[in-house]
Structure formats: structure tokens, C-alpha cells
Specification:
The complex is a heterotrimer of chains A (about 170), B (about 600) and C (about 130). Chain A contains nine helices and four strands; from the N terminus they run ααααααβααβββα. Chain A has about 170 residues and is α+β, with helices and mostly antiparallel strands. In chain A, a hairpin with a 2-residue loop joins strand 3 and strand 4. Chain B folds into five domains: about 110 residues, Glutaredoxin; about 210 residues, Rossmann fold (3-Layer(aba) Sandwich); about 80 residues, Ubiquitin-like (UB roll) (Roll); about 90 residues, NADH-ubiquinone oxidoreductase 51kDa subunit, iron-sulphur binding domain (de novo design (two linked rop proteins)); about 55 residues, Alpha-Beta Plaits, CATH 3.30.70.20. Chain B contains 24 helices and 17 strands. In chain B, the strands form five sheets. In chain B, strands 12-11-15-13-14 form a five-stranded mixed sheet, with helices on both faces. In chain B, strand 13 and strand 14 form a beta hairpin. The longest helix of chain B has 19 residues. Chain B is globular and about 80 Å long. In chain B, about 55% of the residues are buried. Chain C has about 130 residues and is an alpha+beta fold. Chain C is built from four helices and five strands, in the order αβααβββαβ. In chain C, helix 3 packs across helix 4. Classes of the chains: A alpha+beta (about 170), B alpha/beta (about 600), C alpha+beta (about 130). Chains in contact: A-B, B-C. At the A-B interface, helix 1, helix 4, helix 6, helix 7 and helix 8 of A face helix 1, strand 11, strand 15, helix 18 and helix 24 of B.
Chain lengths: ~170, ~600, ~130
């Protein structure tokens, strides 16, 4: 139990993957749109993450120069907000709700099933690159608890033993 | 205008996040196909509304003019609805709502207990208007309050009216809105800002999402009124990243409002300018705290700072800033149009108006309800909420999220308002009510909330960052059988320290879940510590599973469901559990229909 | 789109309320077209369309047009029931478009029952 709770804490491993320069160029548009004010940093990071799937150091550095915001400030923001990630994602992101309503209705058991059968914990990506598991604090769909989102699909009223059969639909 | 088709019937489909997740868009497509097949598309109109509130029963369709309420509608029901109801006028019995208590089908929406006992001010337009149409909002007196303010009232009079109404902040603290505005108006430094806090972070609360999705203009109008009152020309809505639909609907609403000129320069020729921008959040619970939220809008890490100075004096970019919650803003249109006295006539001595609650957890009618302040918890849970499912017993209601506390069985007569909740050790918070039955372990629940607060603590001040962690470790020990005498006293002492010495509102209330469960469920803590037993059979280290031979029907369902092959079963024999292999995952308990495993 | 004035706000409200009148629950008159299988076969759809056209054309807000199942008098279809607020419902039988038009003009708009086509005044008593 303690081990599992320890695993629940996210591990932050800065990525070392190299992004080809021509892909980095795609950031120019975002920089043009948002440069000029720190106020725009969060929307800019959101769009950058949509583009690359995550926010590796190269992307942060380029945004820092382009938007004239110190790199440590950007790193600070990226690591503060749970929406941003600096590690690559799997093909499907599972967002399991661990909010109160879902917790009371059994989302802990769903989590255990995923840990056991997919072999990944919160914040991890499976080795075959199929799933990334995230825990969220309430999707605001408590009426359907327990709830899990896979990509854009919301699955509600999940019977915990059926967890894996839902995942089978995503290859 | 006269050439527009006359629709004799309108099908109002809920398009809130809950119903969309249950498949309401597929139902809409199926209904549209079916209507077209019968050439009825010019006779019958389908309108997508905001969240109707009755999320557990989705997808929902309400048929007007009859007011017939259908629930759990699936695409394959579309031919039935069109053939029977739309064409022949016969109500489809199978899709009507079934009242759990009486086991009867209720055709009319207004007769369903869940809806009938509510009083709608904030949610006045829910399910009645097209969430994306500014015209329909105007038809329901939308922007008339803003017009009245600009045409007939001075900013001071607006503030006076809100003070007279006795409106208090709906985000949790309950600070009187009128006083907040008055203070902000006093500071003579420009520009000023007004911010809408849509960072609804409390798990189990979704009323703000519902309002932003279902009636976005009511928020915009409230913000414009507050801007006029305090002298601000710019507003921001901070919406959390988890609510993409809310952001989308607000964007459309702001666009339409600008087109009509109810936002922008010189609104209604009054000389008053006001515009609104959306500031999306990025997933941090602490950003619901006012100062942290403002840092986040500025593009920084959202960490609270010490007050004073208060935001009214030095908020966003150090300028005077007013911050109210979504629900607070949605109250303003009716207050201005009907007067402060009208609003003050609803509710209790110290808490006026209504409050929206999100009923979740172990309750039959999960959903959003709006009731006058002072409604008893009993009415909320049993009359509106339809009681606890599967004939289980009500154990406690957790009110106010991670900052709130529990109200135990036996105290459900408590009348819910700001004061009485504080009196019993809970708080209003944003209005999340999580109902727990006797299958819920209170120590485990306290541990869950503490874990939440540990995770979401921004780490700036020590009591919150370290104190909560120490409390969490202690709770884990208790749940895993390492509890000792004195642990409960330790938790009480540390919890009081955290509450008394943290910087921001979140830290100051973060120990509440632990303190209130100790207050009402001390015996459960003691059972964990002394008897090494979890009375609710939740904490795996403290229970052994067994099959009760007298209840087992020998069906073998548990045997098939067990993921670790720990259940031994043969046909026509009672199952038994191999404790060596059992991982205590509770799958068997969930699977057994006869309650034979404990 | 031009910026709107407070006067425009009132206009939009009135126009839009008309379109939403179906949901209001309050109305001056209610026309029920009986649309069981028999009614539809006898031409109830045409009558329904006619009423819709008239109401849409004249932009009338306080009338509810609805349908119900077979009234049990299949031989006399198409049938409609007209119910003005505060007075007993009137059943009309064996209708066609011309007759329906006359009923609309005289009964619904002016309140005079068209006795030529009327079957009975008042509803049948319900058993329950």
C-alpha cells in the first residue's frame, strides 16, 4: 500500500530526446502569436504541447528566447501545473479520475487493475508506447462516477473488473 | 421573421459534459435521422441545452409543450420516441423516470421529486434555453439587468442593492459580495479588474461547470455589472483546463456579446466600456485561491501570497481587483431585476438566496440541485436525492471538499447555511456534497483528502507542505495496522497547527477532513488502532475476506471474476477464499450479487 | 451585426419569446390533432401541416399545437380538439383542409364554435 502510494507521486525525468530543427520551426507561429507578455505563457505552452505532445527542454528553450521569458521561469511554470508534461506520451492517455465521488465508487480498484494488467502507474508510459496513465482530481462528471477518460472519450459508470476490457478497445 | 417555421414541438436535449459522455450527441443524431425519415424536421425542433442537473440519468430529453421527461435515452430509442410520441402523441412509458421510493413512473418533469423541490435562481435557465444562443438568453430577461444598471442606477446604487440582497460569495468563504465591491470601488487606482473564478477544483463539485456550459451569458452579464459597480473595464474568466466545453461555450458567448455590443465600447450608449478575456488554467488546485489565481493569469506559478494587501487593493498586476465565483455572478441578473429585498426574502437570517449543491457518491439521484439556504440535509439527501442506493445506510455527508468536513448520521436535520455548517465543523465550500454509505471507511476517506491536499499543496509554507505530509504518513500507518495509542491526539494537535499557521485559505482548512472525521468517528479510528480492524471492510491490511456459507448461492461469479485465482469453487459448492493468494482487491465483493462475501 | 440598443434588447426578447412559446407552459388555445394510425391514414398530417403554416405565417405565440393518439372514433377521422383557455374542449370530426381553416379562423381566433363540424363539447369522463 505504501509502495503504491509512493509510486503515485509523479516522477519527473527531464527528457533527452532531440527534436529535429525543422520541427522546432513550427514553434515560430506560436511565438509570433503570443510574444510580448508573460500573461500569454500558459496558452502558448498549451499550444506547444498540442504540437509536440509534450514539452521537452528544446521546446522550452526556444520559447524562452522567442518570448523573451527566462528559461527557469518557463521550467517553473511547466513543472508547477499538472497539465504540462516534459516526458513523451503514449498513444492513448488514460485520465483516471480520483476525485471524491469516483474514489467512493471504486476508482481505486480501477487504478489497481491498470497497475496490475498494463504495468504502469500514475505518470508512467507503457513500454510499448500504448498508454500513459494520469490521475486527475475530478473531471466534473461525478454523476457518472467512477469516470476515466481515454483520449477524448469519457467512460462512465465503470465496473472495476471491466477495466481491462475497456482498454482493449484502444490499441 | 414571419417566414420562420413554426415548430409545434421542441425536444430539449441535455448537452452538458455528463450527458455528452453518456452519449447524448449520438441520440441527437439518431433523432434527427428519424425525424427526417418521416419528414418532420420542419415541425419538430431539437435544441441542445446546458446541463440539466440530473446527470446520473443521462442522456436526457424533455419534450415540450407537454413537459414530458425521458431519461437514459439511447440512440435505438429514437424511432420509438418519434413514432409514438412525436407522431401519435403517446408517451413512451419505458423511458420515463422511475421514482426509487415509490417504484412509479413519473411522466412530467415538474412532478419528479428531484426537480419539484428545487428553487432555481442561479440555474433559472437550465434546460430551458439553447446554451449557445444569445437571443434565447435575452428572451429570458438576459442583459436587461445590465441595461437597468447602466440606464437607471449609479455604481453606488448597484452596490447598495447587492448589499441589501445579502449575497455572499458562493466560492466557499461566504464573504459579502456588496462589501467586497464597495472596498474595491474605494481605491483610486486604474485600471481595475474584475475576475470570475471558474477554477472549480473541489472534487465532487461541478456546479460552476454546469453554469459556464449551460448559461454562459449569465456569467458575462454578472461580470459586466460588477465591472460597472467597481469601475473596472476589463474582466477575466479563469477556467480550469479540465473543462474544454466550458471554454468553448464561453468563447462563443463572448463573441456573440461583442457582436451585439453588450460587451465592448460604449455599451448601450452609456459611455461604459467593458470587455472579457478567458484565462485558461493548467491544472493546479491551489489556483482556486484568489492570489494564486491572479499570479496564474499573469503567467506565473500559481502560489498564494500573504494578505494584506488584499486583492481589492493590489490584485492582478498590483491593481485593484474584484474576484467572485461563477455562481455569485450568475445571481446578479435576478437580484438587479427583482431587487435586493426579493433576494433577501429567501434563505435564512445570515445566508440569503439559494445555493447549488452537487450531490454525488452513494446516492440515487446524483446531480445538481439548487435549494434555498436553510434547507435541511435530510431534505437534500432523501427527498431530492432519493436516498441511498441498494438499501444501504446513510453514514455521513462530506460537504465542502478537501477544505470541508463530515456531517454524520443522526445530524441530518442540520439546516444548511454558512453559519450552521461551520457550527458542525464542515463548511459550505463550493457546495460539493459527497454522500457516504456504511461501506465507506472514514479513516480511509480522511486519508484520501489529506493525500489530495499533500499533492496539491504549492509548497510555499511549511505547515501545509510538511504538516500535511506527516498527517498523511500517520493516517497510512493507522490504515495499515501500525497505529498506536496517541496517534489520534497527534493528528488533532498537528491538524490544529496546520489550520492555524498556514498562509492561505486552502492550508487553513486542509486539516478539516481529518479533524471532523475524528470528531464524529473516533470509534472507527480506535477500531483501526486498537483492534486492528476496519469496520467498513475497506482497508485491505486490516481485513480478511471470507465467504459466508449461508448466503452463498454457489453461482461461481466470484470465482470467474477473481483476478488472482484466489477463489476456489466447484459447481454446487460454496466458494472459499485462499488467503495466501488473495490480494484484497474487492473485485469479488463487487461481483457478488448476494452480499455473501465480507 | 450592428450594436444593439436597450430598445433592440426588448425587441429581440419579444421575437425570441414567440419562438420559445412552446416551452412556456401557458397558452390561450390548444389544438390537438388526433394522429393515431387511422388519423394519419385519413389525412391528419395535412391538417397538422396546415395549422403549422397558419401559425407560422401569422407569427402567433399563444397557441399550442399538439397531437395525441387515436380518439377511438376511427370512422370519423381526421379529428381535432380545440380547447380555449377557460372553456370546454370541442371535438371536430371528418375534417379536410377547408373545414380546418374555417375552424381556425372562427373558433381559435374569434372564439365562436363552428357547430357544423362539431361532434361534441366536453371531454369523455376518465375512468381513473
Amino acid at each position: 500500500m505504501q509502495e503504491r502510494d509512493a509510486l503515485l507521486k509523479k516522477k519527473v525525468v527531464p527528457s533527452v530526446e532531440v527534436i529535429p530543427p525543422e520541427r522546432l520551426k513550427l514553434l515560430d507561429e506560436i511565438i509570433d502569436k503570443y510574444a510580448g507578455s508573460t500573461q500569454n505563457l500558459i496558452p502558448a505552452l498549451k499550444e506547444a504541447q498540442e504540437l509536440f505532445g509534450y514539452l521537452p527542454m528544446e521546446v522550452q528553450r526556444k520559447l524562452s528566447i522567442g518570448m523573451n521569458i527566462p528559461a527557469p521561469h518557463i521550467y517553473g511554470v511547466v513543472t508547477f501545473y499538472s497539465f504540462f508534461t516534459i516526458t513523451p506520451r503514449g498513444r492513448h492517455t488514460i485520465r483516471l479520475c480520483l476525485g471524491t465521488a469516483c474514489y467512493v465508487k471504486g476508482s481505486k480498484e480501477i487504478l489497481e487493475n491498470i497497475i496490475k494488467d498494463v504495468g504502469i502507474n500514475v505518470g508512467e508510459t507503457s513500454e510499448d508506447g500504448r498508454f500513459t496513465l494520469e490521475a486527475v482530481r475530478c473531471l466534473g462528471a461525478c454523476g457518472l462516477a467512477p469516470v476515466m477518460m481515454i483520449g477524448e472519450d469519457t467512460h462512465g459508470n465503470i465496473h472495476p473488473p471491466k477495466t481491462i476490457s475497456i482498454l482493449d478497445g484502444y490499441q | 421573421m414571419c417566414a420562420s417555421p413554426f415548430y409545434r414541438m421542441q425536444l430539449m436535449m441535455c448537452a452538458g459534459t455528463g450527458c455528452i459522455a453518456s452519449g447524448s450527441l449520438d441520440v441527437r443524431d439518431a433523432l434527427e435521422r428519424e425525424l427526417q425519415k418521416r419528414n418532420l424536421q420542419d415541425e419538430v425542433q431539437i435544441i441542445m441545452t446546458g446541463c440539466n442537473g440530473f446527470c446520473a440519468m443521462g442522456p436526457l430529453v424533455v419534450v415540450y409543450p407537454d413537459g414530458i421527461f425521458y431519461n437514459q435515452v439511447k440512440p435505438e430509442h429514437a424511432p420509438l420516441i418519434v413514432e409514438e410520441h412525436v407522431l401519435k402523441g403517446r408517451v413512451v412509458q419505458d423511458l420515463l423516470f422511475k421514482e426509487e421510493a415509490t417504484k412509479t413512473r413519473v411522466p412530467l418533469m415538474k412532478d419528479i421529486g428531484f426537480f419539484g423541490l428545487q428553487r432555481l435562481i442561479v440555474l433559472r435557465n437550465r434546460g430551458l434555453i439553447d446554451a449557445e444562443s444569445i437571443d434565447e438568453y435575452i428572451a429570458r430577461d438576459g442583459y436587461a439587468a445590465l441595461a437597468k444598471c447602466l440606464q437607471e442606477m449609479t455604481p453606488e446604487q448597484v452596490i447598495e442593492e447587492v448589499k441589501k440582497a445579502g449575497l455572499r460569495g458562493r466560492g466557499g468563504g461566504g464573504f459579502p459580495t456588496g462589501l467586497k465591491w464597495e472596498e474595491c470601488r474605494r481605491y483610486d487606482s486604474f485600471p481595475k479588474f474584475t475576475i470570475c473564478n471558474g477554477d472549480e477544483g473541489d472534487p465532487g463539485a461541478f456546479m460552476d461547470r454546469s453554469v459556464m456550459e449551460g448559461d454562459p451569458h449569465s456569467v458575462l452579464e454578472g461580470m459586466a455589472i460588477s465591472g460597472y459597480a467597481i469601475g473596472a473595464n476589463q474582466g477575466y474568466i479563469y477556467v480550469r483546463a479540465e473543462y474544454p466545453l466550458a471554454i468553448q461555450r464561453l468563447e462563443k458567448a463572448i463573441h456573440d456579446a461583442r457582436e451585439y455590443g453588450v460587451l465592448g465600447k460604449n455599451i448601450f450608449n452609456s459611455g461604459f466600456d467593458f470587455d472579457i478575456g478567458i484565462a485558461p488554467g493548467a491544472g493546479a488546485f491551489v489556483c482556486g485561491e484568489s492570489t494564486a489565481l491572479m499570479y496564474s493569469i499573469e503567467g506565473k506559478r500559481g502560489m498564494p501570497r500573504i494578505k494584506p494587501p488584499r486583492s481589492a487593493e493590489a490584485g492582478l498586476w498590483n491593481q485593484p481587483t474584484n474576484l467572485n465565483n461563477v455562481e455569485t455572478f450568475a445571481n446578479l441578473n435576478p437580484i438587479i431585476l427583482n431587487g435586493g429585498d426579493w433576494f433577501a426574502s429567501i434563505g435564512t437570517e445570515g445566508s440569503k438566496g439559494t445555493k447549488v449543491f452537487a450531490l454525488t457518491g452513494a446516492i440515487n439521484n446524483v446531480g445538481l440541485v439548487e435549494v434555498p439556504m436553510g434547507t435541511s440535509l435530510k431534505t437534500l439527501i432523501f427527498d431530492i436525492g432519493g436516498g441511498i442506493p441498494k438499501k444501504r445506510k446513510f453514514k455521513a455527508a462530506q460537504i465542502g471538499g478537501p477544505s470541508g468536513g463530515c456531517i454524520p448520521n443522526g445530524m441530518e436535520d442540520v439546516e444548511i447555511d454558512y453559519e450552521s455548517l461551520q457550527g458542525v465543523g464542515a463548511m459550505m465550500g463550493s457546495g460539493g456534497v459527497v454522500v457516504m454509505d456504511d461501506m465507506t471507511c472514514m479513516v480511509d476517506t480522511a486519508k484520501f483528502f489529506t493525500n489530495f491536499s499533500v499533492d496539491e499543496s504549492c509548497g510555499k509554507c511549511t505547515p501545509c507542505r510538511e504538516g500535511l505530509k506527516a498527517m498523511y504518513d500517520k493516517l497510512t500507518d493507522i490504515c495499515e495496522g501500525r497505529g498506536q495509542e496517541g496517534d489520534v491526539e497527534f493528528l488533532i494537535e498537528l491538524g490544529n497547527h496546520v489550520n492555524n499557521t498556514s498562509h492561505c485559505g486552502l492550508g487553513k482548512s486542509a486539516a478539516n477532513p481529518v479533524l471532523s472525521t475524528i470528531r464524529y468517528f473516533r470509534d472507527e479510528y480506535d477500531a483501526h488502532i486498537r483492534d486492528k480492524h476496519c469496520p467498513a471492510l475497506v482497508c485491505p491490511e486490516l481485513i480478511d475476506f471470507e465467504v459466508m456459507a449461508d448466503k452463498c448461492k454457489m453461482c461461481g461469479a466470484c470465482f470467474k471474476a477473481c483476478p488472482s485465482n484466489a477463489i476456489v469453487w466447484e459447481k454446487k459448492k460454496v466458494a472459499w477464499i485462499d488467503r495466501e493468494k488473495c490480494t484484497k482487491c474487492r473485485t469479488c465483493i463487487q461481483t457478488c450479487k448476494f452480499g455473501a462475501i465480507r | 451585426m450592428p450594436k444593439i440598443s436597450i430598445e433592440d434588447l426588448r425587441k429581440i426578447k419579444e421575437q425570441q419569446l414567440n419562438k420559445m412559446s412552446v416551452r412556456a407552459g401557458h397558452h390561450r388555445a390548444k389544438i390537438t390533432v388526433h394522429m393515431g394510425t387511422c388519423g394519419i391514414a385519413a389525412g391528419a398530417r395535412e391538417i397538422m401541416t396546415l395549422f403549422r403554416d397558419i401559425i407560422g405565417e401569422k407569427d402567433i405565440a399563444d397557441i399550442i399545437l399538439t397531437n395525441s393518439g387515436c380518439a377511438g372514433l376511427c370512422a370519423k377521422e381526421p379529428m381535432i380538439t380545440v380547447e380555449l383557455e377557460g372553456s370546454a374542449p370541442v371535438k371536430y370530426v371528418l375534417l379536410d383542409k377547408t373545414k380546418a381553416k374555417r375552424i381556425f379562423d372562427e373558433h381559435v381566433m374569434e372564439g365562436k364554435v363552428v357547430e357544423d363540424y362539431a361532434l361534441a363539447i366536453g371531454s369523455e369522463t376518465m375512468a381513473t
